[in-house]
Design goal:
CATH topology: Protein Transport Mog1p, Chain A
Number of helices: 6
Helix content: 25-40%
Structural class: alpha+beta
Number of strands: 7
CATH class: Alpha Beta
Number of domains: 1
Largest sheet: 7 strands, antiparallel
Radius of gyration: 19 Å
Order of helices and strands: HHHHEEEHEEEEH
CATH architecture: 3-Layer(aba) Sandwich
Shape: globular
Distance between the termini: 40 Å
Strand content: 25-35%
């Protein structure tokens, strides 16, 4: 089989920094800020209880991100990324307790597939809801995915570069104070066409279900 160069768009995705940027994470920034509690001050001019922040922190459903490379089952990896090592590759993070990402990619014959999953732990449910809302707004045009965490959203887009199509699906999930983002894309280098929208969308949702289950199970 002759060797085929990857389109520039796909070659760029092999950079961990680009992968994280595409998923919406920032390596240099901290977790999403918690909601502003200034409005909770007493109208009589009293100060807030010093124990309030500790109480809020203790109420968080998730204190740390699960292992991202263990969040997608081997069966799912094999079905979505044929030829990829099921162990995946974790992307370096500045704070693995709060933010972790794992990626799988493989070229089997002329068929290329990429999958990544990211977890981010925020300070509160409200902070996660706010960040979720912002990211959904940035990716308008998709639709809700019932049964994923507290709320889930999915969108699929196709791009063309040098006559090569690539179709990418993104699923964003908010579960309590955690955010999960799954990115799944594919290309056929022989036909120059991308996989059908349904294939990419269902694949991304399938991976997202695995990731949310791992989060809830504490894997």
């Amino acid at each position: 089989m002759r060797s085929l160069p990857l389109p520039l768009a796909l070659t760029a995705r092999l950079s961990p920094v680009v992968v994280l940027a595409a998923a919406g994470w920032s390596l240099s920034s901290g977790p999403a800020p918690s909601a502003d509690n200034d409005s909770a001050s007493n109208s009589g001019g009293g100060t807030r209880s010093a124990s309030a922040p500790a109480t809020a922190a203790a109420s968080k459903a998730y204190a740390a991100s699960p292992s991202p490379c263990g969040s997608i089952t081997a069966k799912t990896v094999k079905s979505l990324v044929p030829g990829a090592k099921t162990a995946g590759k974790e992307i370096p993070s500045t704070d693995t307790k709060l933010r972790r990402t794992c990626s799988w990619n493989a070229l089997k014959g002329y068929d290329y597939r990429w999958l990544d999953v990211s977890f981010e732990i925020t300070d509160s449910d409200e902070a996660a809801r706010s960040t979720y809302k912002e990211r959904v707004k940035e990716k308008s045009g998709g639709g809700d995915v019932p049964g994923l965490g507290d709320q889930g959203y999915s969108i699929v887009n196709v791009t063309t570069e040098d006559k090569q199509q690539t179709r990418e699906g993104v699923v964003i999930v908010q579960a309590s104070n955690a955010l999960v983002v799954v990115t799944y894309n594919g290309s056929d280098f022989e036909s120059k066409k991308a996989p059908d929208t349904d294939v990419i969308n269902k694949g991304a949702i399938k991976a997202a279900k695995d990731a949310v289950a791992a989060l809830e199970d504490g894997r």
